[in-house]
Amino acid sequence: MKTTVIVPTYNERENIERLVRLLLGLPGEINTIIVDDGSPDGTGAIADALAEEYPSRVEVIHRSGKLGLGTAYIAGFRRALAGDSGLICTMDADFSHPPATIPEMVAKAAASYDLVIGSRYVPGGRTVGCTPPRIALSWGANAFARVLLGLRAHDTTAGFRCYRRAVLEKAPLDQILSNGYSFLIEMLYHVQRQGWKVGEVPITFENRREGTSKISKSEITKALATVSRLFGQRLKYLGRKVPPAC
Ligand SMILES: Nc1nc2c(ncn2[C@@H]2O[C@H](COP(=O)(O)OP(=O)(O)OP(=O)(O)O)[C@@H](O)[C@H]2O)c(=O)[nH]1
Ligand SMILES: [Mg+2]
Fold first, then answer.
1. What global pTM score does this model have?
2. Per-domain residue ranges for the chain?
């Protein structure tokens, strides 16, 4: 199945070229869309050089500044939906998400899943090189989102995902209010509520070796606010049967 991989970038000069070359070398029909937010370190120029080298396989969206991960995904989704890929994946640029798992995710989606998550928290999945506070934060965010929102997936904050095209076509992208990391929770909430089938494949999540993290403390507060807002919405819907979208 033709697959587009969206990679949001902000200051990923050390990673982006190697990642794109690895992605293009994977089996299957894969192309990429890099969404760069005017990275001061020149990531955008490296991405442009890759797009020039592979005009039919690498596209770059340049945005004017650091506008946030959520809107970067949405910009990538819209560009991908203008093309003809049947599957649209997202992943970080920093090698925390192993590119070699993509064929397995694609195969699982092709075998009848609507969203496949590259997951740290299913048997066989693990986290390597992260500090205990970072692990605790991820674990806490997941537990909180799963309990309050009833999310069934185990890794609800993972940015490593493959969506079937129809899922994104039907997703209420205009209604998603969160723009940071909690965008991922909000998106998963809508996907599950619309009745799509979500699967997970185990990954080894490795802490980034190059470049720096963009997570800030305010993301924690924003995630708490997002989950609380969605919990309020869920309470309204509880008891009402929502017809599946597929
Ligand atoms: N376009 C765009 N990309 C972003 C933005 N913030 C982060 N990114 C990218 O999103 C991906 C995830 O960011 P990271 O800083 O690795 O965050 P993380 O993986 O959740 O946290 P770490 O475990 O600390 O690495 C990376 O590819 C970043 O370059 C943003 O505002 N705009
Ligand atoms: Mg990272």
1. 0.94
2. 3-237
